[in-house]
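Final report, Chapter 2: Outcomes

The project's central promise was a pipeline that accepts a single protein chain and returns its three-dimensional structure in a standardized token representation, suitable for archiving and comparison. That pipeline is now operational. To close this chapter, we reproduce one record exactly as it appears in the project archive, with the input sequence first and the structure output second.
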Amino acid sequence: MDGRSLGTLADEQLALAREASSGRAAQTVYGGREHDLRQTLIALAAGRRLGEHESPGEATLQVLVGRVRLHAGADTWEGGPGDHVTIPPARHDLEAVEDAAVLLTVAARA
């Protein structure tokens, strides 16, 4: 078994995000091209956004640290530590209300 601490990884990625000019950092936790599932830990410094982008397909977002807002059209969802949301199949963006780390889980498109 290959276990790791998401808390420690979130802390590491947040430190990198705070130093990065983009205000973000990410690391794949599981998956890739040869897997049907991909999980990525994304860290955003307060006030930073991922920017609007297409839906990756079937996906969920779990907040590990901080607070975020997910915007999809006229809909907005705000979550904090432990909150979980299904990402709508529409263009959307993610905003860090405060320094935040989230776990994005994406199922591969068939």
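Archive annotation: Residues 6-19 form the longest helix (14 residues).
This record, like all others produced under the grant, will remain available to the consortium after the project formally closes.
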